[in-house]
Write a structure and sequence with these properties.
The structure is a single chain. By secondary structure, the chain is of the alpha/beta class. The protein has helices spanning about 15-25, 90-100; strands at about 10, 30-35, 50-60, 65-70, 80-85, 105-110, 115-120, 130-135. Helix 1 (about 15-25) packs antiparallel against helix 2.
Length: about 140
Amino acid sequence: MSTQIVPYLYFNGNCREAMTFYHTCLGGELQLQAIKDTPIAGQFHPDEGELIMHAELRGGSFTLMASDMLRDSLKRGNALALLLNCGSEAELRGFFDALAVDGQVLQPVRTEFWGATFGQLIDKFGNTWMLNFTAAPTA
């Protein structure tokens, strides 16, 4: 297996909802593990049992992982964006439209000066997405 960087997102109690949303938008296979279903469940407050210890969404060429933060320890920031390089403009537009539901479009999908089709949004969970498609050069 080659070395790779995998985005790992943290949520404030809504990891299941967010990852289910991403699964609906992006497809792939989603695995969710609640705290109550782990061998260390006894180390947590009973109210935390439904929180997600680990989530993993795997698609054809992507992996996205996530979990819930405990006891309101999540700190929101703007130092991270998820870049989704798409295989076609149609794929980009489909993902963009799905991820933008109840979110905020920062930059509508358009052809940029560098030649790529590009759009940027903040999804309903506060995560920033950049979607990009660069067509193969024609001879």
